[in-house]
Write a structure and sequence with these properties.
By secondary structure, this protein is of the alpha+beta class. It has helices spanning 24-31, 33-47, 57-70, 80-94, 103-123, 134-141, 145-157, 163-172, 186-200, 211-231, 246-253, 255-268, 282-289, 302-314, 325-345, and strands spanning 16-21, 54-55, 101-102, 126-131, 234-243, 277-278, 322-323, 348-357, 373-375. The protein contains 15 helices and 9 strands. The protein has a 5-stranded antiparallel beta sheet with strand order 1-4-5-8-9, with no helix packed on it. A two-stranded antiparallel ribbon has the order 2-3. The protein has a two-stranded antiparallel sheet with strand order 6-7. It is elongated.
Length: 378
């Protein structure tokens, strides 16, 4: 399965591939005018609780929540950074004003958001994997297993930890590449890891182990986990992103596209009576054009936030000054150039594995393509 995500990072995944979510279904829906109009009509009617032909800020909230979930964000209220993105999504519909949204406005914004998501999935598809214990058995059987297990044990040996803690530390260090689903996922812990641990310790004391004891018991624990996975396979969504500045470079070299994006960004920011705006809105504008530069939204990835913050410092974004259109566009290009140079010097690779659970049962099913919900796991 190496290379399925368009990345050659020499990480082999032998887990069974169930599907590759690459945005094609979303794009096809939006581009089919008749189908998309029917889709919008149904969703609008579903959200318009008072049937007045417009959507209030409150009625839009389920749609905003669904979009956030589709972007892989935690629930609203979980994090100030993710809440910032939720606010921006809502502002896309309302333009930052407490006014109701017509069906036409809803259709236009939804189309833009869905096409943006489709483009992102085309660039960085989600690979859906089925983990059923086979890869875990291959890991245990391969020649390098004992050396990896010894390395794990050496990290906890000095703590005089009991066998159970040593084994849990060992499990935590296993990844999808070893055939292990994310050990930080609550469902995996309660349905796979804890039952396996309880079975292992049903007839033995939890003493401080020797290296030999750890190796033997670690093998036994993984054998039990493999059995659990055979009985209860785990579906995992795997994503990879390599932010190397190439997308920003491509955008900066395309004057027509860049100028169009800058014009759109300037048009949407609030302005005073002198047709000037505050520098602080540069953050919102960067988020607006992020997808076109192969960048994530601000607040989505900590490492990328650090890069963006350095670029913001370069233009003194928080000095409170009001600037005109020419200066605004100039500073936005300087921010992009700074981000590009930082990433060219030190690319950021992000890989995540998330357990796919049952579909969410919510009042709104705005984004049911694909019909899965994923709880992010680092």
């Amino acid at each position: 399965m190496e290379g399925l995500l368009g990345r050659n990072n020499n990480n082999k995944r032998n887990s069974k591939e169930v599907a590759v979510v690459d945005g094609r279904e979303i794009k096809e829906l939006v581009e089919n005018k008749e189908a998309f109009n029917s889709f919008v009509e149904h969703k609008f009617r579903e959200l318009d609780l008072d049937c007045d032909g417009q959507l209030s800020v409150g009625e839009l909230q389920p749609a905003v929540a669904d979009i956030g979930a589709a972007l892989g964000l935690p629930a609203q209220g979980s994090s100030p950074k993710s809440d910032h993105i939720y606010t921006e999504v809502l502002n896309e519909f309302t333009h930052g004003k407490p006014e109701k949204v017509s069906k036409t406005e809803f259709r236009e914004v939804l189309s833009d958001i869905l096409l943006g998501m489709a483009a992102g999935l085309k660039r960085d598809p989600i690979v859906i994997l089925r983990i059923d214990g086979e890869d875990l058995q291959e890991f245990v059987d391969r020649p390098g297993f004992e050396s990896e297990a010894v390395a794990i044990f050496s990290q906890v040996e000095s703590e005089n930890a009991p066998l159970s803690k040593c084994l849990m530390e060992g499990v935590k260090q296993l990844t999808v590449e070893h055939g292990m689903p994310p050990s930080s996922d609550p469902w995996v812990v309660s349905n796979i890891i804890e039952p396996a641990t309880q079975e292992l310790f049903s007839n033995q004391p939890d003493n401080i182990p020797t290296q030999e004891t750890f190796l033997a018991e670690f093998k036994k624990l993984l054998a039990i986990i493999r059995k659990q996975l055979q009985e209860h396979p785990v579906i995992v969504a795997h994503t990879e992103n390599n932010f190397d500045g190439s997308g920003v470079k491509r955008l900066l070299a395309n004057k027509f596209e860049l100028d169009k994006l800058l014009d759109s960004a300037w048009k949407e920011v609030p302005k005073d009576k002198h047709n000037k705006t505050s520098k602080e809105y540069l953050r919102l504008s960067l988020d607006k054009i992020a997808a076109s530069a192969d960048l994530p939204p601000y607040g989505a990835i900590d490492e990328m936030d650090e890069v963006m913050n350095e670029a913001f410092k370069l233009v003194s974004i928080d000095d409170g000054k009001a600037i005109d259109e020419t200066e605004y566009k100039k500073l936005l290009k300087e921010i992009l150039a700074s981000i590009m140079l930082q990433l060219q010097g030190n690319a950021i690779f992000v890989s995540s594995n998330s357990v796919v659970h049952e579909p969410l049962t919510s009042a709104s099913t705005l984004l049911n393509v694909p019909p899965i919900s994923v709880s992010p796991t680092e």
